[in-house]
Write a structure and sequence with these properties.
Elements lengths: L5 E6 L31 H14 L3 E6 L4 H11 L3 E4 L11 H11 L8 H8 L1 H10 L7 E4 L14 E4 L14 E2 L2 H15 L3 E5 L3 E10 L3 E3 L3 E4 L13 H5 L10 E3 L6 H18 L3 E10 L4 E8 L8 H8 L4 H16 L1
Parallel strand pairs: 1-2, 1-3
Antiparallel strand pairs: 4-7, 5-6, 5-7, 8-9, 8-10, 8-12, 10-11, 12-13
Length: about 350
Amino acid sequence: MNNKIKVTVIFNEPKGEQYDHIVDIDKHKLDFEAFFETSDLTPEEEFNVVSERLKDAGYDSYALNIHNNLNRLIHNLKSNKPDVIFNFIEHFADEPRLEMNVAALFELIGIPYTGAPPLALSMCQNKILTKQILHSYDIKTPKFKMIKKKKRDYKLRMKYPLIVKPPFEDASSGIENASVVRNYEDLKQRIDFILDEFKQPALIEEFIEGREINVSILGDKELEVLPISETDFSEMPDHLENIVSYEAKWDPLHEAYHKTYPICPAPLTKRLKKKIEEIAINSFRIMGVRDYARVDLRISKTNIPYVLEVNPNPDLSEGVAFMRSAETAGYKYEEMLVKIVELALKRSG
C-alpha cells in the first residue's frame, strides 16, 4: 500500500457531541423486552474510526467535520491537498437536498471522491423522481401519487392500505407507524401532517404487504451484489406495522427498534434471488450511482419485487446494513473501506 496516499474523511455534524438518539436504556422500565444495545459512539467518533482504519491500511488519513462551513472545507482541502475524499456528507444546513452541492464542489475543485456523483445524489434524493425514472424503464415500483397542497377531498383511485411519506427526506424521516393508512380519514390526516410538518409534497404509495429486502452493491463499471439482507418482522406486535420506520431505526426507547431483525443472507429461492439481483443492478445503473449503494425493495405475497428506493452512499457503520452484507460476503471492515477508496482513485487515474 502506498502510504503517501492521503485520504480525507469528510462529514458534516454541526451539533457537536450532543445527539438525541444516544441514550442510556433501563430495560426494566420498558414495557417490552429490549434486545439491542445502542452504540456508545457519537457520529463524529464513528467517522474518526473510519479514518483510523484507513491509517491501519496504510493510508495517510484524517477526518474533517465541516460544521456547515464551506470556507472551512475549502481551506482544509487547499492546505492538506488530499489525494481522495471519502465523502460522508448527507446534508448541509440541515437540508438533505444540498448534499449534492457539496459533491459538486469536489468536482469543481478536481479531487476524486467516493460514492455517487451530484446528479445521482439529486435524483435519488427525490423519491418521486426515482419512481418515475424506474417506471420508465419498466422496473416495478408501488403505484403512487403526489399531493402538493391540501384539498377538501383526495380522489386517488388507489387500493388500501397506503403509505404516506415525505419524498425529500433521508433515514426514514417522516415514516412512522401512522404512515400506513387503511381508511380515508387516516389518509387525509396523514397527508395534512406531511404538508404541514415537512413543508413538501406528500408521496402516497400503495403499501406492499410482504417482505422487506435490502440489496447492497459494490463497484463502478464492474458490480458485485453482496449477500441480500431481509428485515424480519416476525416478532413485530400486532399494533405496529411491518415497516422500517424512523423509530425502528433510531429510537431505542420505541418497541419497533427492538422488534426488527436483520437476516443476512435472506432465505430466497434461486429464482427469486436472481430476479431481485437483476432488478437491483438495473436500478443501480439507471440511477447513476457508483462505488457502493443499497436498493430497498418490498416483495409482495405473490413474490413480485417492487423497488422502494435507491440509496447512494448508504451508512457504512460496522455490522450494519451495507457492511453487514459485506461481512457476510467475507469482507473485513477495513478491507471494504479500502475497496471503496480504490474505486475513487481508479477514476482519477
